[in-house]
């Protein structure tokens, strides 16, 4: 059977094996999908060994997404713009890199949640790998403005420069969050929820605002609690994006996009 895997560190809690197995069952596609833990220094070797043993495709999660792109012979435009790859495909003895994170987020918000992103004034909290991964897709989805605010100002500036749209993309200091007014959409792309939580001014939220966390489970609790207390109308954690980016990867490998509703429902039930 065809072999696929997710690489991460840590990776034991990854939901990807379960999601891809469910997609395979749904579409009658036989395959193996493993979780492979590789420390940063071992990632290139582990990926090479996987290829040598017949691996056809890999998902890549923290902290390997940038390194994964560097190991690819070819990469999609969206992976290059994100500076990171989350989906690798083995073609003619070489890895081809793609990044489905941004498309997954936009698909979740516009298809599942039926929200219109066009023209929105968007606040991006964070400027690390997660923010880089989704920002190009948000711009392509027609948002009006993207305000990148990061604890370390230089990284916000670097992300804005990489996005290359000075007319739509702006940066501000973290200390100024209280003076930026309200946003139509607030994206938590920080990892603060994995280490003690996040504190934000309520003035960022309007009553029609959409708040979305790119992480899920425990890591999303503090931002979701803030969004609720601040009165954001729509509040979602990253489970929807997780399932949709997996469906995009599955479609790249197997040529068919699965119905994500049953998997989303079972993961949401589990998260509650
Ligand atoms: P990821 O791939 O999850 O984005 P990362 O590249 O390490 O991981 O980026 C983590 C992001 O969360 C960064 O934007 C980081 O801010 P710095 O660039 O200043 O480090 C942000 N972050 C982490 N902890 C934070 C906290 N307690 N408050 C605010 N931002 C935080």
Automatic annotation (TrEMBL):
SUPFAM superfamilies: Aminoacid dehydrogenase-like, N-terminal domain, NAD(P)-binding Rossmann-fold domains. Residues 6-88 form the Shikimate dehydrogenase substrate binding N-terminal domain. It comes from the Bacteria. Residues 112-192 form the Quinate/shikimate 5-dehydrogenase/glutamyl-tRNA reductase domain. One of its GO terms (molecular function) is shikimate 3-dehydrogenase (NADP+) activity. GO terms for cellular component: cytosol. NADP(+) binds at residues 77, 126-130, 150-155, 214, 238. Gene3D superfamilies: Leucine Dehydrogenase, chain A, domain 1, NAD(P)-binding Rossmann-like Domain. The keyword Amino-acid biosynthesis applies. Shikimate binds at residues 14-16, 61, 86, 101, 216, 245. Pathway: Metabolic intermediate biosynthesis; chorismate biosynthesis; chorismate from D-erythrose 4-phosphate and phosphoenolpyruvate: step 4/7. The active site is at residue 65. One of its GO terms (biological process) is chorismate biosynthetic process. Keywords: Amino-acid biosynthesis, Aromatic amino acid biosynthesis, NADP, Oxidoreductase. Residues 238-263 form the SDH C-terminal domain. It catalyses: shikimate + NADP(+) = 3-dehydroshikimate + NADPH + H(+). Its EC number is 1.1.1.25. Involved in the biosynthesis of the chorismate, which leads to the biosynthesis of aromatic amino acids. Catalyzes the reversible NADPH linked reduction of 3-dehydroshikimate (DHSA) to yield shikimate (SA). Belongs to the shikimate dehydrogenase family. Homodimer. HAMAP family: Shikimate_DH_AroE (MF_00222). This is Shikimate dehydrogenase (NADP(+)). It comes from Arenimonas donghaensis DSM 18148 = HO3-R19.
């Amino acid at each position: 059977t065809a072999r696929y895997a997710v690489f991460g560190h840590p990776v034991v809690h990854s939901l990807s094996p379960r999601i891809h197995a469910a997609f395979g069952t749904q579409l009658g596609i036989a395959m193996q999908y493993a979780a492979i833990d590789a420390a940063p220094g071992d990632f290139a070797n582990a990926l090479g060994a996987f290829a040598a043993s017949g691996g056809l495709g890999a998902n890549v999660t923290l902290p390997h997404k940038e390194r994964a792109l560097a190991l690819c012979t070819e990469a999609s435009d969206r992976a290059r713009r994100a500076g990171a790859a989350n989906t690798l495909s083995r073609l003619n003895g070489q890895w081809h890199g793609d990044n489905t994170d941004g498309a997954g987020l936009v698909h979740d918000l516009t298809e599942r949640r039926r929200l219109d992103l066009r023209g929105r004034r968007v606040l991006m909290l964070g400027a690390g790998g997660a923010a880089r991964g989704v920002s190009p897709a948000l711009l392509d989805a027609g948002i009006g403005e993207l305000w990148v605010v990061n604890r370390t100002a230089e990284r916000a500036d670097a992300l804005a420069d990489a996005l290359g749209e000075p007319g739509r993309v702006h940066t501000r200091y973290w200390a100024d969050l209280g003076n930026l007014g309200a946003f139509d959409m607030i994206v938590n792309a920080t990892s603060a929820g994995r280490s003690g939580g996040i504190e934000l001014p309520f003035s960022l939220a309007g009553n029609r605002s959409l708040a979305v966390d790119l992480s899920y489970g425990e890591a999303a609790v503090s931002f979701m609690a803030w969004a609720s207390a601040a009165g954001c109308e729509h509040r979602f954690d990253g489970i929807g994006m997780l399932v949709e980016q997996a469906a995009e990867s599955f479609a790249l490998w197997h040529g068919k996009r699965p119905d994500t509703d049953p998997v989303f429902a079972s993961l949401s039930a589990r998260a509650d």
